[in-house]
Amino acid sequence: MKLVTYTTGAGARLGAVLGDGVIDLAEASDGGLPADMILFLEGGEPAMQLARQLLRGTEARTPLSEVTLLAPVPRPSKIIAIGLNYMDHCREQGHEPPKSPVIFAKFSSAVIGPGATIRWD
Q1: φ, ψ (nearest 5 deg) of residue 40
Q2: Are 1 and 33 in contact (CB under 8 A)?
Q3: Residue 25 contacts by C-beta under 8 Å, 6 or more apart in sequence?
Q4: What value does the mean pLDDT of the chain take?
Q5: Angstrom distances, CA of residue 78 to CA of 23, 87, 105
Q6: CA geometry: angle at 35 spanning 57 and 79, to 5°?
Q7: What is the tens place of the pLDDT at every residue in 84-114?
Q8: What's the pLDDT score for residue 41?
Q9: How far is CA 41 from each of CA 13, 61, 67, 87, rounded to the nearest angstrom?
């Protein structure tokens, strides 16, 4: 199951990609699931089980070509990343592999959807 946050122009929605389309999980569940990814994730395994049930035998309702995919989790509470975590990157940067993980954080405003323009303000 590929969960997504998407819009058709009327606000962000929780969805799942099926083939070349998207199903609105909140709509398909008649309100049993939220339209928001964070609230869905907070629902834990019961929410995941309901989503899986909805997707069995269901056809995608909105073609992917008619939606804009947003960041999967639009407002993460924190983003923790590991730097220099593979040899090619170390070589690109001219660094030896670190002896311990290089950990850094990013602001949640850095999160964008697939194919979105990266802005430098």
Answers
A1: -60, -50
A2: no
A3: 14, 15, 16, 33, 40, 51, 54
A4: 92
A5: 28, 26, 8
A6: 110
A7: 888 998 999 898 999 999 999 999 888 999 9
A8: 96
A9: 14, 22, 22, 33
